[in-house]
Amino acid sequence: MLTKRENSILKLIVEEYIPFAKPVSSKLISKRLKCSPATIRNDMQSLELSGLIEKTHTSSGRIPSEAGYRYYVDNLMDKRKMKETDMKKLEIIFSNQQLALSDCITKSLQLVSDMTNYVSVILGSTSHENLLKQIEVVPIDEDNMTVIVITDKGNVKHKIINLKNVSLEEVKKTVSLINNLIIGTPIDEVSTKLEYEVKPIIGKYVNQHEQIYNAFYHVFTDFTESNNVNIVGKNKFLEQPEFYDLEKIKGINSKLDNKDILRKIVNKSDSHDIEIYIGEENQIDDNVTVIKTKYKTKTDEGTIAIIGPKRMEYNRVINLLEFIKKNIER
Amino acid sequence: MLTKRENSILKLIVEEYIPFAKPVSSKLISKRLKCSPATIRNDMQSLELSGLIEKTHTSSGRIPSEAGYRYYVDNLMDKRKMKETDMKKLEIIFSNQQLALSDCITKSLQLVSDMTNYVSVILGSTSHENLLKQIEVVPIDEDNMTVIVITDKGNVKHKIINLKNVSLEEVKKTVSLINNLIIGTPIDEVSTKLEYEVKPIIGKYVNQHEQIYNAFYHVFTDFTESNNVNIVGKNKFLEQPEFYDLEKIKGINSKLDNKDILRKIVNKSDSHDIEIYIGEENQIDDNVTVIKTKYKTKTDEGTIAIIGPKRMEYNRVINLLEFIKKNIER
DNA sequence: CCTAGCACTATAAATATCGGAGTGCTAATA
DNA sequence: TATTAGCACTCCGATATTTATAGTGCTAGG
Q1: B22 and B112 share one domain
Q2: Which of A165, B153, B311, B328 has the fewest CB atoms lying closer than 10 Å?
Q3: A97, B146: Cβ pair inside 8 Å?
Q4: Residues of B with CB under 8 A from a CB of A
């Protein structure tokens, strides 16, 4: 159990370290609290013993430990004071009636990344949550056509397929068979259904069914793989002093670049609250914090997340995400 | 006019500097050529006088100057010896019959970026070169629908629009009017045509035409802006020793991130040959070389480019681009 | 025209110097 | 008993100093 003053000291250390990234001295704290540096130092020793703060070397000031950030977030942080300017800027986006929801989400997270210098991530609905709604085929020239796949959530993927010597007639026949047989199937299950339910039938009714079947099969496996992940501000870590080291940046980049990994990392819980994963609590990097939340609307659901250094502006980011979530959901 | 030996020396300096990024000494050169370091040093002085090589400090070895690279590329480089392994890897992509052309291009440039550690860029056809071919509307729920725009080149863009209290009927009417009136218009001109040719007419025949018109207008302005630029390996510069400096990386990133600027930079000539812009010859960064070429097929055209340090593997990259171009065009 | 030899120079890495910011501890104080 | 003043001590970081070395330019002789 920490004393009242210890709590204040820890709070001050975290809040001083967040913007300046420099170890905090007892002298500085003593100016804010009405007591001498020596007193502060005594408390600092006990805070260090509790594992909440650390030194960078024997005679340095203190920085928050991972447990320190956690304690701060759980117990000390002043919540719910959103910056006026942050709110104003976001409101402009959400009050624009012209914008579709998905554009609002993209634009607002872009804005957040710019305002905070952190990375933002949007995970849209998965290919499992999207149901096949409609397929369109548009011919381009003799050999090529564009296949357009539309899901119930309004997601659209298209792919140009190459069908030499296949008549548009036969393709259209196939499309209408597919449309009849497997509309409403989750996208990630379409390729299996294609194989077991559609293939046998088009085998009977459609000429050149081999080629056509293969083309469609590839369209859907592609669609399943592309998993609706959107990262903004990937190079924002260059702005943070603790990542001056190119090796660290490379390590983080390689994680962020792999969308499957990213989805797993960001999406490991089912909670719809704001969740915070500090340092080792996340799988990206020990020097990083992930703050995320799920959103759910009538038609769609997904996750939005902010990734920044451990000394990120917790309160600000939480408020930003909450604000965005609220606006998405209403 | 350079002597034969000076030419050899310059060639050796460039080819030694490209892989190792370290100033090249007269001693090293003398081992390759049959003469003493002193002789080489004399020639080096004259090469320096001609502005083709430089020193990094008074007693350092030499590195190629910008003019040196240019001279090397124009006169000294052994052309057309493509690496077996490079060719093999690319052939796998192009021999895959299932892949559509655009996927081949994307995949092959991805591969090139990985193999070389340079950045690769694909500029697809512009919104001016794409003609409106078809519009589809798919309802999602009461208030939202997806608008899908398809061009003659098989490009597809979609956007969810929000139309409260507007009946699908009226929207469909609008779509069929648009389809009748302005099919075949270059995408970048559609919004103007919408305003002057479509708006007056739907004003007469369509209920709630204001709302519908606005929604479509936004779809097309969006489409015009998104300009079909694809960058792969943006963080590859982190791998190059001359960009150890975060400030340099940031500078380059900011250029690469702006797709309009990038299109201008990469696309300044109309030639269909391989073109090389070394250092100051390009507008991205003095420490960078851009190698690009245009491609043109029956149905589409675009530009592919590789961006790397000035000491890039010129011959290799040229061969890679030529190979890809050839395969795209046949 | 080429080359051996030598003086010279800048760098890079290792070591030394020095001030300052910060701590921990002890003893005195409220 | 909790706080504080005072002081010795430590480590960092910035600035010099040293030393080795890899390279050059120049001169004179082959």
Answers
A1: no
A2: A165
A3: no
A4: 97-103, 133-134, 136, 138, 140-141, 144-146, 148, 150, 152-154, 156, 158-162, 214-215, 218, 234-235, 238, 244, 246, 249-250, 253, 298-299
